[in-house]
Amino acid sequence: SELPRGFSPLSEVFHVYCVFVLYSLFVVRVSTWYQRQRSWRSVFFFPRIV
Phi and psi dihedrals of 31, rounded to 5? Predict the structure, then answer.
């Protein structure tokens, strides 16, 4: 099995690393947004009974 022309393992690793970084940033953004939505929703619809 020959590697395609112009293929280098370093660029492949860099591509995977970039995808991983973008995906992790996206997950962090969505999780923070979800926590904010959940906190607002709990504040508005489920007031704490103290």
Answer: -70, -40
DSSP per-residue string spanning the chain? -PPPTT--HHHHHHHHHHHHHHHHHHHHHHHHHHHHHHHHHHHHHS----
pLDDT in tens, 21-30: 999 999 999 9
- C-alpha–C-alpha distance, residues 4 and 11, integer Å: 13
Please state, in angstroms and rounded to a whole number, the distance separating the CA atoms of residues 49 and 42.
Answer: 12
Tokens (6 digits) for 38: 């959940």
Q: Is the pTM of this model over 0.85?
A: no
d(CA 26, CA 11): 22
